[in-house]
Write a sequence for this structure.
Protein backbone atom coordinates (compact mmCIF):
# COMPACT_ATOMS: atom_id res chain seq x y z
CA UNK A 1 0.00 0.00 0.00
CA UNK A 2 1.44 3.31 -1.04
CA UNK A 3 1.35 5.95 1.64
CA UNK A 4 -0.48 9.00 0.30
CA UNK A 5 -0.58 11.87 2.73
CA UNK A 6 -3.19 14.60 2.49
CA UNK A 7 -2.54 17.64 0.29
CA UNK A 8 -2.60 20.14 3.13
CA UNK A 9 0.79 18.85 4.29
CA UNK A 10 2.35 20.75 1.40
CA UNK A 11 -0.06 23.65 1.54
CA UNK A 12 0.69 24.79 5.08
CA UNK A 13 4.40 24.03 5.09
CA UNK A 14 5.29 27.71 5.34
CA UNK A 15 3.01 28.33 8.31
CA UNK A 16 4.29 29.79 11.56
CA UNK A 17 5.80 27.66 14.32
CA UNK A 18 3.94 25.20 16.48
CA UNK A 19 2.40 26.28 19.80
CA UNK A 20 4.13 24.68 22.75
CA UNK A 21 1.08 23.88 24.85
CA UNK A 22 -2.46 22.56 24.53
CA UNK A 23 -5.31 24.71 23.26
CA UNK A 24 -7.80 24.13 26.07
CA UNK A 25 -10.25 21.95 24.12
CA UNK A 26 -10.48 19.27 21.47
CA UNK A 27 -9.03 20.01 18.02
CA UNK A 28 -8.93 17.61 15.10
CA UNK A 29 -7.57 17.18 11.58
CA UNK A 30 -9.53 14.71 9.46
CA UNK A 31 -9.57 13.62 5.82
CA UNK A 32 -12.48 11.96 4.01
CA UNK A 33 -12.64 10.76 0.42
CA UNK A 34 -15.38 8.89 -1.43
CA UNK A 35 -15.02 7.02 -4.71
CA UNK A 36 -18.15 5.84 -6.58
CA UNK A 37 -18.51 3.19 -9.28
CA UNK A 38 -21.51 4.60 -11.14
CA UNK A 39 -21.97 8.36 -10.71
CA UNK A 40 -25.20 9.81 -12.05
CA UNK A 41 -26.89 13.22 -12.36
CA UNK A 42 -23.58 15.02 -12.42
CA UNK A 43 -22.22 13.50 -9.23
CA UNK A 44 -18.41 13.07 -9.28
CA UNK A 45 -16.57 9.74 -9.38
CA UNK A 46 -14.39 10.96 -6.55
CA UNK A 47 -14.37 13.76 -4.00
CA UNK A 48 -12.19 14.70 -1.04
CA UNK A 49 -12.90 16.84 2.02
CA UNK A 50 -10.36 18.11 4.54
CA UNK A 51 -11.76 18.98 7.97
CA UNK A 52 -10.23 21.07 10.73
CA UNK A 53 -12.29 20.94 13.93
CA UNK A 54 -15.25 19.40 12.03
CA UNK A 55 -15.30 22.26 9.50
CA UNK A 56 -14.40 21.81 5.84
CA UNK A 57 -11.33 23.79 4.80
CA UNK A 58 -10.35 21.92 1.60
CA UNK A 59 -12.51 20.38 -1.11
CA UNK A 60 -11.77 18.50 -4.34
CA UNK A 61 -13.99 16.65 -6.80
CA UNK A 62 -13.15 14.76 -9.98
CA UNK A 63 -15.46 16.73 -12.30
CA UNK A 64 -13.43 19.93 -11.93
CA UNK A 65 -10.09 18.26 -11.09
CA UNK A 66 -9.32 21.29 -8.92
CA UNK A 67 -8.71 21.78 -5.20
CA UNK A 68 -10.92 24.43 -3.64
CA UNK A 69 -10.12 26.47 -0.51
CA UNK A 70 -13.15 26.76 1.76
CA UNK A 71 -11.88 29.24 4.38
CA UNK A 72 -10.11 32.62 3.98
CA UNK A 73 -6.76 31.66 5.54
CA UNK A 74 -6.39 28.69 3.13
CA UNK A 75 -7.23 30.99 0.20
CA UNK A 76 -4.43 33.25 1.37
CA UNK A 77 -2.02 30.29 1.50
CA UNK A 78 -3.06 29.36 -2.05
CA UNK A 79 -2.30 32.88 -3.32
CA UNK A 80 1.05 33.01 -1.55
CA UNK A 81 2.18 29.51 -2.58
CA UNK A 82 0.73 28.62 -6.04
CA UNK A 83 3.31 25.88 -6.66
CA UNK A 84 2.53 24.19 -3.36
CA UNK A 85 -1.16 24.38 -4.22
CA UNK A 86 -0.48 22.76 -7.60
CA UNK A 87 1.50 19.97 -5.91
CA UNK A 88 -1.28 19.47 -3.39
CA UNK A 89 -3.86 19.15 -6.16
CA UNK A 90 -1.71 16.56 -7.93
CA UNK A 91 -1.46 14.53 -4.72
CA UNK A 92 -5.25 14.29 -4.53
CA UNK A 93 -5.50 13.37 -8.23
CA UNK A 94 -3.04 10.53 -7.58
CA UNK A 95 -5.19 9.48 -4.61
CA UNK A 96 -8.22 9.47 -6.90
CA UNK A 97 -6.53 7.04 -9.30
CA UNK A 98 -5.44 4.81 -6.43
CA UNK A 99 -8.91 4.65 -4.88
CA UNK A 100 -10.57 3.93 -8.22
CA UNK A 101 -8.27 0.94 -8.61
CA UNK A 102 -9.16 -0.26 -5.11
CA UNK A 103 -12.86 0.13 -5.85
CA UNK A 104 -12.50 -1.96 -9.01
CA UNK A 105 -10.68 -4.65 -7.01
CA UNK A 106 -13.49 -4.79 -4.46
CA UNK A 107 -16.16 -4.92 -7.16
CA UNK A 108 -14.36 -7.83 -8.77
CA UNK A 109 -13.87 -9.57 -5.43
CA UNK A 110 -17.59 -9.32 -4.65
CA UNK A 111 -18.51 -10.26 -8.25
CA UNK A 112 -20.26 -6.92 -8.73
CA UNK A 113 -19.91 -5.88 -12.36
CA UNK A 114 -22.73 -3.30 -12.29
CA UNK A 115 -24.57 -1.06 -9.88
CA UNK A 116 -23.68 1.76 -7.54
CA UNK A 117 -20.89 1.06 -5.04
CA UNK A 118 -18.73 3.31 -2.85
CA UNK A 119 -15.29 3.17 -1.28
CA UNK A 120 -14.62 5.60 1.57
CA UNK A 121 -11.21 6.42 3.00
CA UNK A 122 -11.00 8.18 6.37
CA UNK A 123 -7.96 9.12 8.44
CA UNK A 124 -6.88 11.82 10.85
CA UNK A 125 -5.95 12.76 14.40
CA UNK A 126 -7.21 14.58 17.49
CA UNK A 127 -5.40 16.70 20.08
CA UNK A 128 -7.11 17.29 23.42
CA UNK A 129 -6.54 20.12 25.87
CA UNK A 130 -4.88 17.76 28.37
CA UNK A 131 -2.25 16.82 25.76
CA UNK A 132 -3.64 13.37 24.93
CA UNK A 133 -3.70 12.35 21.27
CA UNK A 134 -5.64 9.96 19.07
CA UNK A 135 -5.43 8.83 15.42
CA UNK A 136 -7.54 6.71 13.10
CA UNK A 137 -7.33 5.19 9.62
CA UNK A 138 -10.00 3.05 7.97
CA UNK A 139 -11.77 2.10 4.76
CA UNK A 140 -15.49 1.57 4.25
CA UNK A 141 -17.25 -0.21 1.40
CA UNK A 142 -20.92 0.39 0.57
CA UNK A 143 -21.54 2.07 3.89
CA UNK A 144 -19.97 -0.66 6.04
CA UNK A 145 -16.56 -0.71 7.71
CA UNK A 146 -14.20 -2.76 5.54
CA UNK A 147 -10.75 -2.58 7.15
CA UNK A 148 -9.15 -0.49 9.91
CA UNK A 149 -5.57 0.15 10.99
CA UNK A 150 -4.44 -0.75 14.53
CA UNK A 151 -1.45 1.51 15.16
CA UNK A 152 -0.64 -0.25 18.45
CA UNK A 153 0.01 -3.61 16.77
CA UNK A 154 1.01 -2.19 13.36
CA UNK A 155 -1.53 -4.47 11.69
CA UNK A 156 -4.80 -4.14 9.82
CA UNK A 157 -8.11 -5.44 11.20
CA UNK A 158 -10.47 -7.05 8.68
CA UNK A 159 -14.20 -6.44 9.16
CA UNK A 160 -15.40 -8.38 6.12
CA UNK A 161 -14.24 -11.71 4.58
CA UNK A 162 -12.75 -10.08 1.48
CA UNK A 163 -10.81 -7.73 3.76
CA UNK A 164 -8.78 -10.72 4.99
CA UNK A 165 -7.06 -10.83 1.59
CA UNK A 166 -6.23 -7.14 1.78
CA UNK A 167 -5.05 -7.49 5.38
CA UNK A 168 -2.56 -10.26 4.53
CA UNK A 169 -1.17 -8.26 1.64
CA UNK A 170 -0.78 -5.02 3.61
CA UNK A 171 0.59 -6.75 6.72
CA UNK A 172 3.28 -8.56 4.69
CA UNK A 173 5.20 -5.30 4.37
CA UNK A 174 5.92 -3.62 7.70
CA UNK A 175 7.32 -0.43 6.16
CA UNK A 176 4.07 1.30 5.14
CA UNK A 177 2.37 0.30 8.40
CA UNK A 178 5.19 1.87 10.40
CA UNK A 179 4.89 5.04 8.31
CA UNK A 180 1.17 5.21 9.01
CA UNK A 181 1.80 4.86 12.75
CA UNK A 182 4.37 7.64 12.60
CA UNK A 183 2.00 9.85 10.63
CA UNK A 184 -1.00 9.33 12.94
CA UNK A 185 0.95 9.76 16.19
CA UNK A 186 3.46 12.45 15.22
CA UNK A 187 3.17 14.04 11.79
CA UNK A 188 -0.59 14.50 11.83
CA UNK A 189 -0.45 16.12 15.28
CA UNK A 190 2.34 18.45 14.14
CA UNK A 191 0.37 19.50 11.09
CA UNK A 192 -2.73 20.01 13.22
CA UNK A 193 -0.77 22.34 15.50
CA UNK A 194 0.69 24.05 12.44
CA UNK A 195 -2.73 24.66 10.91
CA UNK A 196 -4.10 25.94 14.21
CA UNK A 197 -1.28 28.47 14.27
CA UNK A 198 -1.87 29.49 10.65
CA UNK A 199 -5.59 29.94 11.19
CA UNK A 200 -5.26 31.11 14.78
CA UNK A 201 -7.70 34.03 14.53
CA UNK A 202 -10.45 31.74 13.24
CA UNK A 203 -9.73 28.36 14.85
CA UNK A 204 -8.60 29.42 18.32
CA UNK A 205 -11.28 32.07 18.85
CA UNK A 206 -14.12 31.78 21.35
CA UNK A 207 -17.69 32.85 20.65
CA UNK A 208 -20.16 32.73 23.57
CA UNK A 209 -23.55 31.11 23.06
CA UNK A 210 -26.65 33.23 22.64
CA UNK A 211 -29.20 31.62 24.96
CA UNK A 212 -32.95 31.82 24.41
CA UNK A 213 -35.76 30.24 26.44
CA UNK A 214 -38.91 29.24 24.55
CA UNK A 215 -42.09 28.01 26.21
CA UNK A 216 -43.66 25.31 24.09
CA UNK A 217 -47.14 23.84 24.13
CA UNK A 218 -49.05 22.79 27.22
CA UNK A 219 -50.25 19.19 27.09
CA UNK A 220 -54.04 18.90 27.21
CA UNK A 221 -53.92 15.50 28.89
CA UNK A 222 -51.83 16.34 31.96
CA UNK A 223 -51.27 20.11 31.81
CA UNK A 224 -47.48 19.74 31.65
CA UNK A 225 -45.46 22.46 29.91
CA UNK A 226 -42.47 22.01 27.59
CA UNK A 227 -39.65 24.58 27.87
CA UNK A 228 -36.81 24.72 25.33
CA UNK A 229 -33.37 26.23 25.98
CA UNK A 230 -31.77 27.18 22.65
CA UNK A 231 -28.06 27.96 22.40
CA UNK A 232 -26.73 29.45 19.18
CA UNK A 233 -23.60 30.98 17.66
CA UNK A 234 -21.00 29.47 19.98
CA UNK A 235 -17.43 28.32 19.25
CA UNK A 236 -15.62 26.04 19.96
CA UNK A 237 -17.96 23.07 19.78
CA UNK A 238 -17.71 21.85 23.38
CA UNK A 239 -20.54 23.11 25.59
CA UNK A 240 -22.02 21.99 28.91
CA UNK A 241 -25.76 22.59 29.35
CA UNK A 242 -28.35 20.97 31.59
CA UNK A 243 -31.53 21.69 33.52
CA UNK A 244 -31.57 22.27 37.28
CA UNK A 245 -34.33 22.07 39.88
CA UNK A 246 -33.84 23.70 43.27
CA UNK A 247 -30.14 24.15 42.47
CA UNK A 248 -29.48 20.50 41.58
CA UNK A 249 -29.07 18.82 38.17
CA UNK A 250 -32.43 17.46 37.03
CA UNK A 251 -32.53 14.70 34.39
CA UNK A 252 -36.16 13.61 34.61
CA UNK A 253 -38.24 14.55 31.54
CA UNK A 254 -35.19 16.28 30.04
CA UNK A 255 -34.27 15.86 26.36
CA UNK A 256 -31.11 16.92 24.52
CA UNK A 257 -30.43 17.67 20.87
CA UNK A 258 -27.09 17.26 19.10
CA UNK A 259 -24.47 19.95 18.71
CA UNK A 260 -24.71 20.97 15.05
CA UNK A 261 -22.76 23.43 12.84
CA UNK A 262 -24.06 26.73 11.51
CA UNK A 263 -23.20 28.10 8.08
CA UNK A 264 -20.78 30.66 9.61
CA UNK A 265 -18.68 27.99 11.37
CA UNK A 266 -20.29 28.37 14.80
CA UNK A 267 -22.56 25.77 16.45
CA UNK A 268 -26.05 25.46 17.88
CA UNK A 269 -27.64 23.18 20.46
CA UNK A 270 -30.90 22.75 22.36
CA UNK A 271 -32.35 20.96 25.36
CA UNK A 272 -35.92 20.77 26.64
CA UNK A 273 -37.76 19.84 29.80
CA UNK A 274 -41.39 19.00 30.68
CA UNK A 275 -42.56 20.50 33.96
CA UNK A 276 -45.64 21.18 36.02
CA UNK A 277 -46.37 24.91 35.51
CA UNK A 278 -46.99 25.30 39.25
CA UNK A 279 -43.28 24.47 39.81
CA UNK A 280 -41.90 26.71 37.05
CA UNK A 281 -39.97 28.90 39.47
CA UNK A 282 -37.96 25.92 40.73
CA UNK A 283 -36.26 25.29 37.37
CA UNK A 284 -33.46 26.91 35.39
CA UNK A 285 -31.26 26.19 32.38
CA UNK A 286 -27.54 26.12 33.22
CA UNK A 287 -24.97 26.81 30.46
CA UNK A 288 -21.17 26.73 30.62
CA UNK A 289 -18.83 27.43 27.68
CA UNK A 290 -15.28 28.68 27.11
CA UNK A 291 -16.67 31.85 25.52
CA UNK A 292 -18.50 32.84 28.73
CA UNK A 293 -16.78 34.72 31.53
CA UNK A 294 -19.05 32.86 33.94
CA UNK A 295 -21.81 30.24 33.49
CA UNK A 296 -25.32 31.32 32.54
CA UNK A 297 -28.39 30.47 34.60
CA UNK A 298 -31.71 31.15 32.90
CA UNK A 299 -34.82 30.93 35.07
CA UNK A 300 -37.83 29.30 33.42
CA UNK A 301 -40.17 31.65 35.29
Amino acid sequence: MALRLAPLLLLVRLAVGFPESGFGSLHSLKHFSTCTSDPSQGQPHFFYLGYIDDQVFLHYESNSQEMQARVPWVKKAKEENPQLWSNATQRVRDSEDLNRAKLEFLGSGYNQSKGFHTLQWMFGCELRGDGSKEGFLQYGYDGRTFITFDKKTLTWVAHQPLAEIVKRKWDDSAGPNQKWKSYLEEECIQWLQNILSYGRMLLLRTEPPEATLVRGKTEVEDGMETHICRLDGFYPREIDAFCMRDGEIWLQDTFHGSVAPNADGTYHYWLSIRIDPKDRGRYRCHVDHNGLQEPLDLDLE
